[in-house]
Amino acid sequence: MPLRDGLRRLIPIYIWGRLSDSLYPDRPLPSLRLTQWQFARQLSEQRPWTGWGLRNFTPLYEEATGWWFGHPHNLGLMLMAEIGIPGTLLFCGLVAGALFPAVRLLGRWRKNPRNLDDLILFSYLVAFASCVLFNLLDVTLFDFRGNLLGWMLLGALWGIGENWRSPLS
Predict the structure, then answer these.
(1) From CA 22, how far away is CA 6, in angstroms rounded?
(2) In terms of CB atoms within 10 Å, which of 40, 64, 125, 142 comes out highest?
């Protein structure tokens, strides 16, 4: 696969090997991320509207495989399996709605790229995008530090976008 081979050249082996589970070839099948992701996808296919209920991935996975894992290491798949596809789309829509004013505000950056405020806004957006990407490979929802960082960045971006839309002056 061209995409996989291209990514393999860009990403260092210690990171690629951890994500693809090729670094530890003797791991049991239920302990692989791909197995957890496939199981979460199957759960969301079985109950796409309502999901299986919050925090039910762990007991269902343990019952099916005999292995305990606290979460499926992908926030989107976990939400689809636990609260269903409509709930996941609603949650993502709320986050996108809070993020949209800040992204739209960044559109004016092209006019004056040396503006320090726009550079700070861009930095906040990159930091939040990093949190989102990290949640595709793990779930920081259960780690206080990562979860707090993501929500604070989203709140700051929403506040910046809303303040610019209706200034207090």
Answers:
(1) 16
(2) 40
Return the domain boundaries, the chain.
32-165
> pLDDT tens digit string along 82-133?
999 999 999 999 999 999 989 888 877 666 666 677 788 889 999 999 999 9
Where does residue 77 rank: exposed (0-12), middle (13-18), buried (19+ CB within 10 A)? buried
pTM of the model: 0.81
User: Which has the closest alpha carbon to 137: 2, 1, 4, 21?
Assistant: 21
Give the helix/strand (H/E) hosting 18. Answer: helix 13-20
Q: Can you tell me the distance from the alpha carbon of 86 to that of 64, in angstroms, rounded to the nearest whole number?
A: 25
What's phi and psi for 160, nearest 5 deg? -65, -45
